[in-house]
Design brief:
By secondary structure, this protein is an alpha+beta fold. The chain contains eight helices and 17 strands. The longest helix has 18 residues.
Length: 474
C-alpha cells in the first residue's frame, strides 16, 4: 500500500506581485527572473494578453515558487551563455507517475524511514534555449543546433552516498513511420515500414497502430501515458519510449538543484541497448516481472563495447576496454587528429535507436517475422542496424562513423540518425546510482523517477499533442 501525502510600452498593464513580502511589478519580476533586457511576457498592441504571454506567465509563476522556497541559489540566468529566448519548457513534479520509494512512503519498506529524494511538494522547471555559436543553426528543429537545458528544482534531497546522482532525460515515444517499398533484400528502408508491416500493425487491437504518425501502442489501442494510478508491472503506460540523457547532477543542502546541460549531436545519444533487458524494470523483455525476479539483473554489460549478443561481442578488452592510462571518454569527440577521437562508444544516436525500435516492435512482417521473443528481436536489430553504419566491422560505432555531416548505408545522410530536441515529448528526472550500467536504473519503468513533465512549446502546446495533430493531417 502506498501512502503519500521586444519590450512593451504598456507597463501599467502589469499588476503588482509580492515576492517574499517585497512588491515588484510583474514586468520587473520577469526581467529579474530572465536576466534579460526584454520581458519574457508582454502585452500586444491592443493591450490584451496573447497566448505567448499567458504561457510565459506559467513559467514565471513556477520560477517565483522556486525562488520563495528554501534554496541555496536562485533560479539560473538563462541568458548567461549567449543564448536566445526560451522556446520550450517543462513544468516538473511527481504527480503523474506511480509513487516509489524515493518520493513516497510504502508500507513495510520505508514508511518509518526518511524520504531520500523529494515529496509531493517537490517542483521544478526546465527551460530550453538555442545557443548562439558561429556556424551553428539557431532553429531548434535542426538536429545540428546546440540547445541549452536549464533545470531548476525545489525540494530535491542531496544524494549522499555510493556515487549516486540524479539524471535528467528527454523521452522520445516510438511512432508509426511512413509506408514505402522495401529494399532489394526485403528489409524496410530507413525510417519507413513496408506495406506488409503496415497491414500487420493495422490488424492489431483497435487499429490505432495503422495510422502513420500515431505513437506505437502495445495492443494497438489508444495511448496511455504514465499516470499516478499506474501499478507496476500489471497496469501502466502502453507506450514504447527511450531516453536521451540531459546530464547527471546532485542537489544542494538547501534542497534545491540547478543543472545546465548542452544538447547537441554528440550528446544526443541513447544507452547501450544490450544492457536494456537486464536493468530490472522491463517485464515485456523479461517476463513476468523483469530481470530482477528472473535472476538475470546485470547479466549482459557493455563495458567492452560491441553490437550485442547476436553481433560482434568478442572485442579485445586490451583495445576496447577502459585503459587506465587512456580511459574511455565519450566527451572526447573533437580532435585535429581523428585518431584521438574516442572510438569505444557504448551508446548510439537517437534516430538510430528509433530505427532499432522499428525493427523490434513495428516491422513484424519485414524483419525476422519468425521471431516473437522481444529480447531476441532486440539483439537481431542491434546487430543489423550497427552493420549498416559500422565501416570497419568491429561492432562499435565511432564519432567518425556517426558524424552528422557524413554518410552511411549507401550514401544516406547521417542527419537521419539524430532527432531534433523538438521531437522529444517528456522530461524525466531519475534517481541513479553507479551500478556499472549506462542504461537508466530500472530501464524505462517509473521505479526510479522522482520528477517528470510534458515538454511544451513556449505557447504552452504539449509536444505530444502537436505530433498527434500532425499525424492526423497526413
Amino acid at each position: 500500500m502506498i501512502n503519500q501525502s521586444s519590450s512593451s510600452s504598456n507597463k501599467n498593464k502589469f499588476r503588482n506581485a509580492t515576492v517574499g513580502g517585497v512588491g515588484f511589478s510583474a514586468l520587473a519580476l520577469a526581467l529579474w527572473l530572465s536576466g534579460t533586457t526584454q520581458p519574457i511576457s508582454q502585452a500586444n498592441a491592443a493591450g490584451t494578453v496573447d497566448e505567448r504571454e499567458a504561457q510565459n506567465r506559467e513559467v514565471t509563476t513556477r520560477l517565483v515558487e522556486i525562488r520563495k522556497s528554501s534554496h541555496t541559489y536562485p533560479p539560473q540566468n538563462i541568458n548567461a551563455n549567449g543564448t536566445k529566448e526560451v522556446f520550450q519548457y517543462a513544468l516538473l513534479d511527481n504527480k503523474n507517475f506511480q509513487p516509489n520509494v524515493f518520493t513516497g512512503y510504502i508500507d513495510g519498506i520505508n514508511d518509518k524511514a526518511e524520504l531520500t529524494a523529494g515529496n509531493e511538494k517537490t517542483i521544478g522547471v526546465a527551460r530550453l534555449v538555442t545557443i548562439r555559436k558561429p556556424g551553428l543553426p539557431t532553429d531548434p528543429s535542426d538536429p545540428r543546433a546546440h540547445v541549452g537545458v536549464h533545470i531548476d528544482i525545489s525540494g530535491l534531497k542531496t544524494v549522499k552516498a555510493e556515487a549516486g546522482w540524479y539524471e535528467a532525460t528527454f523521452m522520445y515515444t516510438t511512432k508509426i513511420p511512413p509506408v514505402a517499398p522495401p529494399r532489394a533484400d526485403g528489409h524496410a528502408q530507413f525510417g519507413t515500414i513496408t506495406p506488409e508491416d503496415h497491414h500487420f500493425m493495422a490488424s492489431l487491437g483497435e487499429g490505432y497502430n495503422g495510422v502513420v504518425g500515431h505513437v506505437f501502442t502495445k495492443g494497438g489501442v489508444a495511448p496511455r501515458y504514465p499516470s499516478r494510478d499506474d501499478v507496476w508491472p500489471d497496469e501502466g503506460s502502453n507506450l514504447v519510449s527511450f531516453p536521451v540523457t540531459a546530464g547527471a547532477f546532485n542537489a544542494l543542502k538547501g534542497d534545491d538543484a540547478h543543472h545546465y546541460f548542452e544538447f547537441m549531436p554528440e550528446t544526443n545519444m541513447v544507452f547501450p541497448h544490450q544492457e536494456f533487458p537486464f536493468a530490472g524494470g522491463v517485464p515485456a523483455l523479461h517476463p513476468p516481472l523483469g530481470s530482477f525476479a528472473d535472476g538475470t539483473l546485470g547479466h549482459i554489460l557493455s563495458i567492452v563495447p560491441g553490437s550485442g549478443p547476436f553481433g560482434i561481442n568478442n572485442n579485445d578488452p586490451h583495445i576496447y576496454g577502459d585503459n587506465p592510462s587512456d580511459p574511455r571518454d565519450p566527451d572526447r569527440f573533437e580532435s585535429i587528429d581523428p585518431a584521438q577521437k574516442e572510438f569505444r562508444l557504448r551508446s548510439v544516436p537517437s534516430g538510430l535507436t528509433e530505427e532499432i525500435h522499428r525493427d523490434v516492435f513495428i516491422r513484424r512482417a519485414s524483419f525476422h517475422p519468425e521471431e516473437n521473443n522481444l529480447e531476441r528481436r532486440l539483439f537481431f536489430a542491434l546487430a543489423y542496424e550497427y552493420s549498416l553504419i559500422d565501416t570497419n566491422n568491429d561492432g562499435v560505432l565511432t564519432f567518425e562513423e556517426l558524424d552528422i555531416d557524413g554518410t552511411s548505408d549507401g550514401g544516406q545522410s547521417n542527419e537521419r540518425l539524430y532527432f531534433a530536441i523538438t521531437e522529444f515529448d517528456r522530461l524525466i528526472i531519475q534517481r541513479e546510482i553507479n551500478d556499472g550500467m549506462i542504461v537508466p536504473r530500472f530501464a524505462n519503468s517509473q521505479r526510479a523517477w522522482v520528477l517528470n513533465g510534458d515538454m511544451k512549446s513556449i505557447t504552452g502546446e504539449r509536444i505530444r499533442d502537436r505530433q498527434l495533430a500532425e499525424s492526423e493531417i497526413h
